[in-house]
């Protein structure tokens, strides 16, 4: 479905990605793990068209998307992101935030049924539809950011650290919901996570990033039992 080929991305003179290639198959959950500053967010932003790579290309269903504007990546290709730090609209209500996620869609019935789906997935949002986004708790904002991304009916969903800052019971819940979205909606997911243990439990495939390069790749199962991964990312001795 998505192929990233030898991407080099810079911030000014600083090179954040140094020749990254990854492949995501339709229907799978692929996870990207790696330490702080490894380039995970930069890779998601490059796929989303928010930063242009200086070298390399990105193909979605065989076609290069390197020059497609970010809004068209969402509206025409159905690649949506739930960004790190949530980035919801704080002065808009929960309902308005969710509406924004469907900004490019015209099919009212489809939007309504997706809204129902999101509110069933996150009942807390249903209780707070008229509340301003900025007054939600951290966990609720996280749900809203994921819900908003789902409102664009993504075929590929990019999730940047969805479990960040959540209480342990909510972390468990979020990973369960990620799996549910993947299975019920046949949504392909690229999941960036600090919580490597949980990410590897739900994912099919995995890439480990280190200072802008792919250090390891394989099935989630393989990497779960990889000695290096266990020591560096799963906190085992
Ligand atoms: P984390 O897990 O800490 O969020 P990450 O793997 O997502 O890390 P990135 O945010 O992609 O890492 O950052 C990769 C590198 O690019 C880092 O060295 C970071 O300092 C640098 N970087 C990120 N954004 C910018 C920016 N706007 N300007 C300059 N450098 C940046």
UniProtKB/TrEMBL annotation:
Signal peptide: none annotated. SUPFAM superfamilies: P-loop containing nucleoside triphosphate hydrolases. GO terms for biological process: L-amino acid transport. Keywords: Amino-acid transport, ATP-binding, Nucleotide-binding, Transport. GO terms for molecular function: ATP binding; ATP hydrolysis activity; branched-chain amino acid transmembrane transporter activity. InterPro entries: AAA+_ATPase (IPR003593), ABC_branched_ATPase_LivF/BraG (IPR030660), ABC_transporter-like_ATP-bd (IPR003439), ABC_transporter-like_CS (IPR017871), BCA_ABC_TP_C (IPR032823), BCAA_Transport_ATP-bd_LivF (IPR052156), P-loop_NTPase (IPR027417). Residues 2-236 form the ABC transporter domain. Belongs to the ABC transporter superfamily. This is ABC transporter ATP-binding protein.
